[in-house]
Amino acid sequence: MKVQDSHKYDDIIHLPHPVSKYHPQMPPMNRAAQFMPFAALTGHDEAIRETARRTDSFVWLDEDRKAQLNERLLFLLENQEQQPECEITCFQPDEKKEGGAYVAVRGRIKKVDAQAQRILFTDGAALPMEYLFSIEGELFRNMENP
């Protein structure tokens, strides 16, 4: 930079900032929005996150496991007035992609609704019988060890 260039604006440097009489000043929030990053591909980040999200595969049960679950469901049906406490694990299919997740719900059983194929808990939770994986609880320990 040349020495003479450093004094190029000396005549206007101390003048007040010009303010228009006709146009209002832009609010600082709108000024900041001008400099926000430009998202050319709207939704691209969300699509990448969704693709990266992992899901579990549904595990098909063998005949022995199905028989055990049926036996436990019948036992729950016969003893539902006692409102036994259980932990039931079932598969929840994912709404957006193939697969899903195994979820465990622990609580007291209110009703085994064979007609609607649901297990209702006293806290209002409901699980479909279609994707049952396991039923555990103190009630079944006595069943296995007579």
Structure, explained:
The protein has 146 residues and is of the alpha+beta class. It folds into two domains: 4-52, no CATH class; 63-144, SH3 type barrels (Roll). It contains four helices and five strands; from the N terminus they run αααβββββα. It has helices at 28-34, 44-52, 63-78, 138-144; strands at 85-93, 100-113, 118-121, 126-128, 132-136. Strands 4-3-2-1-5 form a five-stranded antiparallel beta sheet. A hairpin with a 6-residue loop joins strand 1 and strand 2 (100-113). The N and C termini lie far apart (96 Å). The mean pLDDT is 84.
Supply the CATH architecture of the largest domain. Answer: Roll
CATH structural class of the largest domain: Mainly Beta
Largest beta-sheet characterization: 5 strands, antiparallel
- CATH topology description of the largest domain: SH3 type barrels
Layout of SSEs?
Blueprint: H1 28-34, H2 44-52, H3 63-78, E1 85-93, E2 100-113, E3 118-121, E4 126-128, E5 132-136, H4 138-144
Antiparallel strand pairs: 1-2, 1-5, 2-3, 3-4
Brief sketch in words of this structure:
This protein has 146 residues and is an alpha+beta fold.
Provide keyphrases for this structure.
27% helix, rod-shaped, 2 domains, 146 residues, alpha+beta, five-stranded antiparallel sheet, SH3 type barrels
